[in-house]
């Protein structure tokens, strides 16, 4: 078996031609560009092309497959690839080790997405990069105002209603004096902030346009509490759901499973492994916290794991994030939308216990998009406002009617005055009554 092992570098790469029968290697150093790599693939009659997973491995793998060569992109995070207790490590040693381990079948292949999916994944990651740059710029601007003892609005108000106050301090750097150079720096940073915000809006619009045509993104968004940004990241990371055999592999792929140390009678679990894409893991935990407001099932899972203990809140959130990742993978694998009835049937199939009442779970409404939700909330707010105004109007009318009826039943002021001045009528018994005798007073 002829193996071509490539140790890829940023500028130069080392190719190792290895024959598994003779066990003799041949090395060639070549620049890492399409022309030289393509010439090697043309001249080399290799049965297998092996390379490590890195930045250039995507287009080199596509180039090798275009020549009809079988490829193997291996993971360098496995135990077999770790270098330990070696006296020398060079690019030739790396290429030779790749070839020998491929001949023994000790290398584990990684999933290589298609060129279109790699571009989509790159755009999703770039959106987060722009968001981080905007936050860094805002923090820099806030630091200048704090260092000069000037108060600005806190939170997002500073960049909307409080932007006029911030703009009042900006000045071109050329016009700044020696004691106000920070105003020129502020002008530059505000220009960068406006440009980054505009570019971020363009990236988000492009992602939303892709999400409307991608059925996978729409399907993941049917989970209550999962928004478009989370759905995009999950679809970008999972790609082909059939490459995972079960939910445990999905959990391990996102690094949401505990570390394990087992030796003899000792079996200890530690913190989560944090392997895989850190952006996906972060957004899953944020989505877990947000789903507590919109998903009764997620809230039931959280309360069951948390057990009303303050020390278990973060653990419950991470456990809920793992469940959301597995559910998203299952929806993509089965090509189904979120359905509470399906969850009830699956839970009953293995005698599991539902986190909330079955009737409450079955009565969960379908998730609505944010535009429909805004329109529905606006209609509800308008209806409640009209109901309150009608109630207030009815109360005022009833009060006015009551006041009119009360005033008609009561006598007028002149009548009341004549009644008070009218003398009391004396009866015949009162006139003929003899005077009361006085009690004699005895002297002391």
TrEMBL record:
Which residue stretches belong to region Disordered?
Answer: 365-444
Per its UniProt record, what InterPro entries does this chain match?
A: Transp_IS110-like_N, Transpos_IS110, Transposase_20
Alphabetized Pfam families for the sequence: DEDD_Tnp_IS110, Transposase_20
> Which residue numbers delimit the Transposase IS110-like N-terminal domain?
6-143
Q: Organism's domain of life?
A: Bacteria
Compositional bias segments (type: Basic and acidic residues): 378-388
Q: Report the residue ranges that make up the Transposase IS116/IS110/IS902 C-terminal domain in this protein.
A: 218-302
Q: List the biased-composition ranges (Polar residues).
A: 391-432
Q: Where is the composition biased (Basic residues)?
A: 368-377, 433-444
Coiled coil residues, start to end: none
Q: Which NCBIfam families match?
A: transpos_IS110
Name used for this protein in its record: Transposase IS116/IS110/IS902 family protein
- Organism lineage string: Bacteria, Pseudomonadati, Planctomycetota, Planctomycetia, Pirellulales
